[in-house]
Amino acid sequence: MMQDTVTILGIETSCDETAAALIRRSANGECTVLAEQVASQIAEHSEFGGVVPEIAARAHVEKVDLLIRRVMADAGLVWSDLDGVAATAGPGLIGGVMVGLMTGKAIAAAHDLPFIAANHLEGHALSPRLSEVVGFPYLLLLVSGGHCQFLRVDGLGQYSRLGSTIDDAVGEAFDKTAKLLGLGFPGGPAVERAAAKGDSKAVTLPRPLMNRPDTLDMSFAGLKTAVLRAAQAEPLTDQRVSDICASFQMAVADILSQRASRAMAMMAEQGADQSRRFVVAGGVAANQTIRSCLEEAAKAAGFQFNVPPMKWCTDNAAMIALAGAERLTAGMSDVLDTPARARWPLDHSSANASPVYGSGKKGAKA
Ligand code: KG4
Ligand code: ZN
């Protein structure tokens, strides 16, 4: 069944943000976010220096109903105003995923609404389409706590992987760098703040795999080890910490923009002018230095550049509602016994074909 305009409730609980959102999307792609709430669990996890799955699941249970009630009230909607409910079904920390998934299914069952089991990564992949009409196809760089990959997005559900990290995800590298420099949790924003006071040329760090013209794969594990060595080499004054952060951030920006330039060259060779679009999504896309280096690369390649506003780079439910809205508009929905999945790659064929990529890397913010 095709519908013109759909109003969808989205629920996100795959990692350490509990989130609910209501969006309205017309068939021509225009979106309005009617209400949204994100409750972060930073306080719950900070003393452990990372996300503790059991604590996360419990915090989701405590908050998710309240957030849903709040977005319904903020938007002034009743259940019969909804056309469907979407909840993240994976990938992520399984206990948390189950909380949001069960909640979404219960609402759908009680109010006889279509249910969409959303892939969290599809939410990130589509997220720039919340604020702008970005047509398919596009080159996507997905950079989050658990993932770092280039994908060609040809349409809803049509993803092919062009390259990927072979070890750590880029957000994970930020988080580990922050931890070993004593900057606390979450790491990405802390490293970015410290880097603002540092000199990006002060510490020489490697750019692994950059001399390999034959691949779009990336590696960050060696960079992390080099950061550890730099941290041990001299007393860790505030200035030294800032210099290491600035140098690390610049190394990541260099790696990503060099790979992005190559990926754009490939896209340009393959396709017509309408495929000259480069989209960046996921938590690391919130980093200003990385955003501007990638924007420069896009400009140099003659590509349109789209990145969601900051609040939709990190985990949120508006992007989950959007994935649900796009699927529902295309006539897709899921049965109520759809399982929660810890791993769920966007591109099944390349995940199966290449053991290096495994079964979709680790969960969100691994
Ligand atoms: O997309 P996201 O919220 O969750 C996942 O699906 O993983 O991404 C979280 C990741 C974390 O590793 C966090 O440190 C990183 O994104 N991150 C950043 C920034 N803000 C969040 N990394 C660098 N700079 C930032 N400003
Ligand atoms: Zn995410």
Can you describe what's shown?
There is one protein chain. The protein has 366 residues and is of the alpha/beta class. It folds into two domains: 6-131 and 312-345, Nucleotidyltransferase, domain 5 (2-Layer Sandwich), CATH 3.30.420.40; 138-307, ATPase, nucleotide binding domain (Nucleotidyltransferase, domain 5), CATH 3.30.420. It is built from eleven helices and ten strands. It has helices at residues 42-46, 53-75, 94-111, 120-126, 170-180, 187-195, 221-233, 238-270, 288-301, 318-329, 348-353, and strands at 5-12, 17-26, 31-40, 84-90, 115-119, 138-143, 148-155, 158-164, 277-281, 304-306. The strands form two sheets. A five-stranded mixed β-sheet has the order 3-2-1-4-5, sandwiched between helices. A hairpin with a 2-residue loop joins strand 7 (148-155) and strand 8. Helix 2 packs parallel to helix 3 (94-111), helix 4 crosses helix 10 and helix 5 crosses helix 6. The two termini are 38 Å apart. 5'-O-[(R)-(carboxyoxy)(hydroxy)phosphoryl]adenosine binds next to helix 5 and helix 6. Zinc ion is lined by residues 120, 124, 144, 282, 315, 364.
The level of helicity is 40-55%
Bound molecules: 5'-O-[(R)-(carboxyoxy)(hydroxy)phosphoryl]adenosine, zinc ion
How many β-strand stretches? 10
SSE pattern, N- to C-terminal: EEEHHEHEHEEEHHHHEHEHH
Oligomerization category of the chains in this entry = single chain
Rg over CA atoms, rounded to whole Å, is 20 Å
Unreliable sequence segments: 357-366
Tally of contiguous helical segments:
11
Q: So, CATH architecture of the largest domain?
A: 2-Layer Sandwich
Strand arrangement, major sheet: 3-2-1-4-5
- Can you tell me the CATH class of the largest domain? Alpha Beta
- Name the structural class: alpha/beta
In this structure, how is the largest beta sheet organized?
5 strands, mixed
Average pLDDT, rounded to a whole number, is 92
Principal-axes shape call: globular
Number of domains: 2
CATH fold-level assignment of the largest domain: Nucleotidyltransferase, domain 5
